[in-house]
Every structure is written in C-alpha cells, then in structure tokens.
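Aim 2, interim progress: modelling of the adenosine-5'-triphosphate-bound target.
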Amino acid sequence: MGAPIIFSGIQPTGRKHLGNYIGAIRQYVEGQERGEPAIFCIVDLHAISVAYDPDDLRQRLYDTTAVLLAAGLDPERCVLFRQSDVREHTELTWLLSGVTAHGELNRMTQFKEKSGQQRELVSAALFLYPVLQAADVLAYRATEVPVGEDQKQHIELMREIARRFNERFGGDLVEPEHRIPAVGARIMDLQEPERKMSTTGATEAGTLYVLDEPGAIRKKLGSAVTDSGREVRRGEDKPGVTNLIEVLAVARETNPEAVEAEFAEAGYGDFKTAVAEGVVELLAPVRERYAELRPDEAALEAVLAAGAEKARALAAPTVAEVRDLMGIGPRAYS
Ligand code: ATP
Ligand code: MG
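Predicted structure of the complex, ligand included:
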C-alpha cells in the first residue's frame, strides 16, 4: 500500500465545537503528515441545505478557514479549499445521483434528524446531501476519510455508490475507508450526554466552542451533567462522566484508563476542574492564533484560491472519466 489519499469536508458554520475539533480537525492536522495528498474542503454547498443567511455564510466561511489554519493546517502541506470553487463537485453530484437509490437516501439518519428540525422547508438539497458528499470524496479517489462517528453511514453509502457505478459502467472509482479516532469519535453534549455535541440541535450550555474564552469553558464544564454516583469511571449508565473522561484523555494525550486511575479517589468537582483546565490548554493556542489570522480576509481568500486550483486539477480527470463512461458528451477516449 502506498500513501493514503486523504479527503474530508467540514461545514462553514464558523463556530466549530469541541466535537468537530476532536473528531475531525485534529485528525486533519495529523493527516497532513501521511496523506499524498491530504485534501480538506470547506463545504459551503452543503450549508445551503438548511435555513441560512447569505452574508452570514460568507463570514462563517472565513471563520472556519481561520479556525482550520489556526489549528495547524498548513497550505504548503495540504490542499485546503472552498467546495463551490471547484465546479466538478456539483457536476459529479448529478451524475452520481443516477446510481443512487432514493430508498437509500431515505434511510439516512442525518436526513431524518435534520429534516425534523426544519421549520419552513425540508429542501431537496438536504435529501441529496449524501450524494454531494460522495462526489466530494470520490472525485479525488480518496482512500481515507477522517470523520466523526456520525458520518459512518454516509461513508458506507458512498462506498455503495462507487461500487454501483463501477459495476454498471465499468469504472474504477475508489471505495474509501472511514477513519474515526479511537477516543473522541463522538463527543457528547455536556447538558444532554445522550446526544452528540452538534452545531444544530444541541444545547448552547452543553456545547464547547473552539473559540470559547477560558471563563466560558470553565463555566460550561463546571455545570456539565454527571450522575448521582461518585466514581470517575466509564460506563453505559454514566454517559456524562464517560464523555468527560474521553475529553480529558484527548486533551492530555493519554488514554481513558489513565484518567480513571488518576481520579480514582477524586470527587466530581475536582475531576471537572481538571477537565476544564485540560480543555483550556488544548484550545487556547488555537483561539490566539485565530485572532491573528481572521482579520485578513484577503489572505484567507488567497489561501482558498490557491487550494482550489490544486483541487480542480485533481478532480477534473475523474469527472471527465465518469462523464465519458456514462455516455455524456462526445466520446473522449477511443
Ligand atoms: P451539523 O450538526 O450541522 O451537522 P456538525 O456539528 O456535525 O454540524 P460538521 O461540519 O457537519 O459539524 O462536521 C464536521 C466533522 O466533525 C465531521 O467529520 C463530523 O463527523 C465531526 N463531528 C461532528 N460532531 C461531532 C462530535 N460530537 N464528536 C466527534 N466528531 C464530530
Ligand atoms: Mg454534521
């Protein structure tokens, strides 16, 4: 096996949270060392699938770009770009929708959850979201997709789409593998630890943002829901404590067992204070670097434009081949 081709996308919701950081962004930074290439895309076209404001979308896109750079993405070592700049993604979406079953899209958990949250319009874009996601990944023939646990079902679907395309048209699209972190693949809401920490549909007090000030982090972790017991250990009956143990293990770059051992004699109060300090230390450098980078939107645009050029060169041959095999346009290869 050669070096992996790594691809992942992240929504331009600006206020990225600790779940995004631990489940996705941290893996991106590590992926830069292994991927040839490592490709990261800010998916503005996915963002229009739910209610949004156009001016706000542009601002949040810059926020997200600055967060990723602040977290350690280096445009010299990865391809970082804005999805809508590379038109191949939308074209491939339509082509692949021809080999995607309606029934499969109907079964997607994320569609069911997010369509239930919409007040005015359940858009066709929300339904087609996984096909655009499949196009994002398959266009680059990516072998590895670093994501949180919630994206497993979408990765399975894109594998199925690639298989079906290959069978039907004799193509050689690559079925990507998902890569989820061993610890922290599903960070839970601090107030409702049965649900994932999330941009949409989580509690405000239970969501730690990457750009939160230390005071806010301490406050939210201080009031994190635990349980009526007193032991700092993981267990199905202890979702709140289990989540905090995983968070501290990630922040300290150790494992959950070591955290349990260290806090075996401690009460919840001391434990939560330690988690807060760990998270403050984890996120402070990102927040500080973000403050330096975010004001210069022209510099952020320049990074995205250079990334888009590299991405286009990678995606275009795949889309040309898919078109050709599907009989779209004049025959390109004889
Ligand atoms: P939304 O709720 O609008 O879908 P989100 O919080 O899931 O937003 P995304 O931009 O869709 O944010 O996700 C970016 C990445 O973060 C994805 O790889 C996703 O799997 C990961 N991720 C999201 N939430 C969590 C979480 N609670 N724990 C671990 N990883 C997560
Ligand atoms: Mg999501």
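The radius of gyration is 21 Å. The longest strand covers residues 6-10.
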